[in-house]
Backbone:
């Protein structure tokens, strides 16, 4: 019997890509599959890594923040740049627009960026604020933001976090992923613009939004601020 305070995680591929899931470094499925479930998840966060069956496809890693007493669904999708991403979903059968690239065949993915490359990317260009929040402090803040059960108090806490600290676009995307509703995701994406360190990369935040309409709305907002 699963403890009510624990959570479950379901990672699934709507388009049928097969993968092996590593949860906090431990292999979860013996053979590549299109759906993998992990139960009895404890702790504030966990790390998952997907190793794809298709040779040459870069691994996909992600930190997921725990939602106690719930089942967390993450869909394997492609973003506007045709790179694989994991996006939170209400269920395995969610019909919410995802903005997948609609192609008969997918071109080879570019090599995965290293942590050093990500830091170099965020260090370049115009700065919207000074001294980005340290990762350890950010994770602690994100756990606090994700604690409330509904979006309105989560959004209030997230805005407070952003207004009191300087965030990177990667951190902002992590905050957006804790929200259940697209309107809340878009609201925070707009609010956080003025509290962003690597502001020249802000268009990347659109990858965390689920619908093309929201991404277009955010792009218009970004253009209006320039």
Residues:
């Amino acid at each position: 019997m699963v403890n009510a305070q624990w959570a479950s995680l379901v990672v699934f591929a709507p388009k049928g890509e097969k993968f092996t899931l590593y949860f906090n470094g431990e292999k979860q499925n013996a053979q590549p599959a299109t759906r993998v479930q992990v139960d009895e998840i404890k702790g504030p966060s966990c790390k998952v890594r997907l190793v794809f069956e298709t040779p040459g496809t870069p691994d996909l890693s992600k930190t997921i923040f725990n939602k106690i007493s719930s089942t967390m669904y993450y869909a394997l999708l492609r973003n506007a740049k045709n790179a694989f991403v994991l996006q939170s979903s209400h269920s395995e059968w969610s019909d919410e627009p995802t903005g997948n690239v609609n192609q008969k065949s997918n071109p080879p993915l570019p090599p995965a960026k290293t942590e050093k490359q990500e830091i170099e990317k965020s260090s370049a260009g115009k700065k919207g604020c000074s001294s980005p929040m340290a990762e350890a402090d950010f994770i602690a803040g994100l756990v606090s933001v994700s604690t409330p059960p509904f979006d309105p108090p989560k959004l209030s806490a997230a805005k407070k976090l952003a207004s009191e600290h300087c965030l990177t676009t990667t951190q902002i995307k992590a905050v957006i992923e804790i929200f259940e509703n697209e309107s809340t995701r878009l609201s925070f994406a707009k609010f956080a613009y003025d509290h962003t360190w690597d502001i020249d990369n802000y268009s990347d935040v659109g990858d965390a939004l689920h619908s093309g309409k929201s991404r277009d709305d955010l792009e218009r907002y970004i253009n209006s601020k320039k």
Q: What stands out?
A: The chain has two domains: 7-89, 117-225.
